[in-house]
Design a protein that fits this description.
Elements (H helix, E strand, L loop, with lengths): L12 E10 L2 E8 L4 E8 L6 H17 L8 E6 L5 E6 L6 H7 L4 H20 L2 E2 L8 E3 L5 E3 L6 E2 L6 H4 L2 E2 L17 H17 L13 H10 L12 H10 L11 H14 L18 H4 L60 E2 L73 E8 L2 E7 L8 E6 L8 E3 L4 E4 L4 E9 L9 E6 L1
Antiparallel strand pairs: 1-2, 2-3, 3-5, 4-5, 6-9, 7-8, 10-11, 12-13, 13-16, 14-15, 14-17, 17-18
Helix pairs in contact: 3-5, 3-8, 7-8
Pfam families: Pkinase
GO molecular function, one term: protein serine/threonine kinase activity
Keywords: ATP-binding, Kinase, Nucleotide-binding, Serine/threonine-protein kinase, Transferase
Length: about 525
């Protein structure tokens, strides 16, 4: 391990101690004089100062300034150039151990890991909505604040989505144990789903006490890890307190085929929340910034908000978990990844044990070694069938016109007319009866709705949807109850019975006050 460069002299700050190194920079603890507080200062190493690293350092400062108001992203206070010409960033000092240190020192409860996962999903979703890919999510980049909240840090190799495909964006770093399979084929551009893989791999690491493809007893060199990441099935977590539903969520987020993963970090967050509900835990709030944070006062209204908490509905997971393709071990050929010039090849440090290779490495282009094609998984549709309404029979009656003549003449009656004509068509089936007794109760910020189906038949499902909420999605469940996070004064849902043949009942609606 190299020795850090001396801490630079910064006006208004006094150096306290060296904190750590990573990539092209050193991090020190400084005492800020006004206001009086401890801060972390990230300083570019003297031997790393060049046009490319300066541009990347400036970009990191700008990205962090854009996102650091998020409660799960480290806060930036200042950026500048030291008197000796080194760029620096002054950040929030997180005094508690980061996730890398924590999982090596303790076995963290599953509930806490779920909470951290949902909070980080909010940070990643906000980052993605700003058009930014983090590209280096791993345990050591998840810091812990004094209030024991996780914050995502180190945006040093992040990139705006518009820059993907450029030479600078392609020559990115990667941390092998938490990188997705497509990261090892330089011809495949990384997108948001790569961040979801790395986030899920980070949560897996905390639960398993080692990186996902680290094998106890080895070998765990870089080439070994890359080969397993690309071709080996995800090992099962051997923890009795981890429910199968959580294993399924992590397995989907870490699917070797990017198209089979969750589409967004918000989808992953909702899946983790559903596991929380299953474990009878209070669902963790998701903090998400609005898609268009820069709006005029007229557009916002009289009560501007600096952050949108966008958790509205916690969707239930499908009744049948998705089936993931299991690659044949050893099907992929030997891999010899090529790294950018001047960085060198990865060493043979282990994946998840103490001394793990957590160094962010450079991802370079190579002529061969592309990933084997993974067949796209067919997904079950979550959209309920739209029931056809029952058509009524039209009964036509012809009333005889009674004509009378003057002088007391007898009335003239027309010929008899049939008032009903029997149909020869088959009768139209009638849909199922609506649910009854739909009601909700609130406990611990979670609204739980139950109901009874008086005409329940085999194959019936229940389609429920939260009402009064923008972009709420309809969800099919096999049986009550339905639970949603209550983040407003009241919560309302509608429920329909969906029969096996697609017929639907009328909707029943119920509300519950917080």
């Amino acid at each position: 391990m190299r020795a850090p460069a001396p801490a630079p002299e910064l006006y208004g700050y006094s150096p306290v101690r060296f904190l750590g190194s990573g990539g092209f920079s050193d991090v020190f603890v400084y005492q800020q004089q006004r206001p009086n507080r401890a801060v972390a200062v990230k300083v570019l190493r003297p031997d790393a100062v060049n046009a490319q690293t300066l541009a990347r350092f400036d970009a990191e400062a700008d990205l962090m300034a854009t996102l650091s108001t998020h409660p799960a992203i480290v806060t930036i206070h200042e950026a500048g150039i030291s008197p000796d010409g080194r760029p620096y960033i002054v950040m929030e000092f997180c005094s508690q151990p980061n996730l890398s240190a924590r999982y090596r020192a303790e076995r963290m409860p599953t509930g806490e890991v779920l909470r951290i996962g949902v909070q980080l999903c909010g940070a990643v979703e906000t980052t993605h909505r700003a058009g930014i890919l983090h590209r280096d999510i791993k345990p050591s980049n998840v810091l812990t604040t004094d209030f024991h909240r996780p914050v995502l840090s180190d945006f040093g190799i992040s990139v705006h989505r518009s820059a993907l495909g450029s030479q600078t964006a392609d020559a990115v770093g990667l941390s092998i144990p938490w990188s997705p399979p497509e990261a090892f084929d330089a011809r495949v551009p990384l997108d948001e789903r790569a961040d979801l893989y790395s986030l899920a791999a980070t949560l897996y690491t905390v639960l398993a006490l080692r990186s996902p493809y680290d094998r106890p007893g080895g070998p765990n060199g870089s080439a070994d890890l890359i080969s397993r990441i690309r071709s080996a099935p995800l090992p099962v977590l051997s923890r009795s307190d981890v429910p199968p539903s959580l294993e399924r969520v992590l397995a989907r987020a870490m699917d070797k085929n990017p198209a089979a993963r969750y589409a967004t970090a918000l989808d992953l967050a909702r899946a983790l929340q559903q596991v929380e509900i299953e474990m009878r835990l209070t669902p963790t709030e998701i903090d998400i910034r609005d898609r268009d944070p820069i709006r005029t006062q007229q557009e916002i209204g009289d009560s501007p908000a600096t952050r949108v908490r966008a958790l509205t509905v916690i969707e239930a997971q499908p009744e049948h978990p998705p089936v993931f393709p299991t690659p044949v071990p050893g099907s992929a050929g030997p891999i010899a990844p090529r790294f950018a010039a001047g960085v060198g090849t990865p060493d043979d440090s282990t994946g998840g044990t103490p001394g793990v290779d957590e160094q962010t490495r450079m991802r370079g282009r190579q002529a061969g070694g592309e990933m084997p094609a993974v067949p796209a998984r067919v997904r079950r549709s979550r959209t309920p069938l739209i029931a056809v309404g029952v058509a009524g029979l039209l009964v036509a009656g012809v009333v005889a016109v009674v004509l009378t003549s003057g002088g007391g003449a007898a009335p003239v009656q027309g010929p008899p007319v049939d008032t009903f004509q029997q149909s020869t068509e088959a009768p139209i089936p009638v849909g199922p009866a609506a649910v009854v007794g739909l009601k909700g109760t609130v406990k611990g910020g979670v609204a739980e709705f139950t109901w009874t189906a008086p005409d329940a038949r085999p194959g019936d499902r229940y389609q429920w949807k939260q009402t009064g909420v923008d972009d709420a999605k309809a969800t099919l469940v096999a049986a009550p109850p339905v639970r949603i996070f209550q983040n407003a004064a009241s919560a309302c849902i509608s429920v329909k019975v969906i029969a096996a043949d697609g017929q639907a009942s009328d909707a029943s609606v119920s509300c519950v006050d917080g």
